[in-house]
Amino acid sequence: MNTKSPVQQIIHPLFSAHQISVAIKRDDLIHPVISGNKWRKLKCNISAIDKATHQGILSFGGSYSNHIHALAYACYQHKLPCIGIIRGEVEYAKNFTLASAQQWGMQLHFVDRKTYRRRNDNDYLAELRQQFANYFIVPEGGSNTLALEGVGDVINELNQQAEFDTLITPVGSGGTLAGLVQADNNQHQLLGIAVLKQQGYLTDSVNALLGEQASKFSNWQILNQFHRGGYAKFSAVDVQRLLTFKQQVNIPFEPVYSGKMILALLDLIESGYFPAGHRIMLLHTGGLQGLAGLCERKLLNDEEWPLPEYFTE
Questions:
Q1: Are strands 279-284 and 21-26 parallel, antiparallel or unpaired?
Q2: Which helix (H) or strand (E) holds 125?
């Protein structure tokens, strides 16, 4: 799989008015199914699988998880059995995300929210290793130390593609930002937009993934005020602003990850956060399959928010 994604300049009246240059790295175009940061985080995990000792991969996600969707397809392509520990009820198994995952061979095991909150606890992981012997366990969102190298390829590519001052990415579990920080090695300013309410644990998560070298990186921060009410929450005003922007620039977004990054960018530029002449690079982390679930739940209008053609061909 060729993961080198293109960089596209974005022309918008707000950017011109504030004399800001904005481009976007289109990681949503990496692959028709495994788009964005999901493949970058998964590829080194899959490479680490020793089929002599590991039967397959087990991981975690919600009922509309981009990670679960991508993992199922990646394992299908690599002929690896996979198990998804899913937060939610069995009736969600028929939604677009999980129906696709099952079609590609993923076994789904549904757990309640109390159990799911234990997904990083050593005692619970030990139980899973006993229940599903010889399965390689990948954390929620694919965010572990193995993911960092794959994500770091974004920086390696950008260094050959464009010059910029600040790189902005949405942050859900911290793995993408950690990989960018490590690979960037203090070359640029890195700005993470938290897509969920949290009390600083995402910063702790990034530092934990960076490990002993964390203290040497001083060029990054996470902004926590742009979550729009919490994970997967957004208002009608948010949706309309994002829809207008999407139509103006002709780039697909969704309101859970990349959309919150865009709305944060607009708010920051309007407030004068960036000086004139600043060069911004956005990272489109994909996740567009999530539009199907949002439309299924009538949270979005499927005529205004269609799945990209490559999902429906």
A1: parallel
A2: helix 122-131
In this structure, the number of other CB atoms found within 10 A of the CB of residue 254 comes to: 25
Q: From CA 261, how far away is CA 244, in angstroms rounded?
A: 15
Maximum pairwise Cα distance, the chain? 59
Between CA 35 and CA 32 the distance in angstroms is 6
Instruction: Reduce the DSSP state of residue 107 to 3 states and report it.
Output: strand
pLDDT per residue rounded down to tens, the chain (313 residues): 566 899 999 999 999 999 999 999 999 999 888 878 899 999 999 988 877 789 999 999 999 999 999 999 999 999 999 999 999 899 999 999 999 999 999 999 999 999 999 999 999 999 999 999 999 999 999 999 999 999 999 999 999 999 999 999 999 989 999 999 999 999 999 999 999 988 788 999 999 999 999 999 999 999 999 998 888 889 999 999 999 999 999 999 999 999 999 999 999 999 999 999 999 999 999 999 999 999 999 999 989 998 877 665 4
Edge-first strand listing for the sheet containing 189-194: 7-10, 21-26, 279-284, 166-171, 189-194, 220-223
Contact 195, 170 (CB under 8 A): yes
CA distance linking residue 70 with residue 100, whole number of Å: 10
Q: Which residue has the tokens 């990681």?
A: 27
Nearest Cα to Cα of residue 226 among 269, 254, 194: 194
Please choose, from the candidates 28, 283, 47, the residue with its C-alpha nearest in 3D space to the C-alpha of residue 175.
283
Q: What is the dihedral of CA 200, 201, 206, 208, to 10 degrees?
A: 130
Residues in the chain, overall count: 313
* Residue 27 tokens, joined: 């990681």
> Quick count: other Cβ atoms within 10 Å of Cβ 216?
11
